[in-house]
């Protein structure tokens, strides 16, 4: 038993809002549009590939950095999607590391970079994995609010926040929870600051293949100078509807990758071997899956947005990810956590409040201004239509 005097390294952390809302959704049999995972199945090819690999006995450790054929397939994908200059060749074997989900890649990248006393800039609303990792490394996060309702980054605020302790900036595009995208001007502003102040970037791009209305994802991988100081992180769980396989990767220049791998080998050594074989085969045999993903999710977004047209919610634009924000200020005065509890318990639809994505100080300002919740539309159309029908009655 843990002594009551035990000093927690993360004293203020409790159960995450995602766990809490999913538990509530189950308890009250609500339609669960809260936690971000697909309701539909992993592609049939991928499922049979992993079964075959397991039957063939490929069940032992693989190289710590990842299965070479998977590293090569990821390299080809990155090259095809982001590297327009044919002369620029990504050295897949020395710059890519396969990890146990993007979560592991984020933790390892942050432990690689952050030293005691360092500051890391994050933008609120921020995904919840960044800050605990920074704190465990002995650093602290400097939170900067994105400007609601369009959730743009004010780069002049970033400039003001940079000081001699600043070590890194975390970006996330397409963005969870807001569904916004960073554009070319954002990446150029970031690049300018990173180069000037010799900072590093952790770029969380797990929703990279889900962008809508013809807009392309601006990856850090497309900016060679910026990439020299970056860890770019992605997740096959998002791309191939297999979040439970926990397979992701990190792309970084060779010198940073060498340091990243030192930590990765002692966090997990290597990630689940059969999934690596299966995903390598999927990328090789079904490259169109990645290209079709944006269209697939855009259709889902459009189903949900159209079905909510007659509701009293104000739908904020979703330009990427599988999330949509709803402003409920015309419906209720409750704060967003209380509103989500009520929505789940009494109305039968589970959503995620935005306030847990904010630092307390920023939240005070935010709460007086906004009443916004997040829905996940990675669900079957019937589920989305049923949820929207209920929400239209409010
Ligand atoms: C922004 C963001 N980053 C990282 C992750 C974690 O990805 P993985 O499941 O591959 O660990 C998620 C998952 O929801 C996410 O939304």
From TrEMBL:
Q: Kindly state one GO CC term assigned in the UniProt record.
A: cytoplasm
Origin superkingdom: Bacteria
Where does the record place the Aminotransferase class I/classII large domain? 31-389
GO MF terms, alphabetically ordered: kynurenine-oxoglutarate transaminase activity; pyridoxal phosphate binding
The entry's keywords: Aminotransferase, Pyridoxal phosphate, Transferase
Q: Which cofactor does it need?
A: pyridoxal 5'-phosphate
Q: Which PANTHER family match?
A: FI04487P (PTHR43807:SF20)
Family listed: Belongs to the class-I pyridoxal-phosphate-dependent aminotransferase family.
- Entry protein name: 2-keto-4-methylthiobutyrate aminotransferase
Q: Which organism is it from?
A: Marinicella litoralis
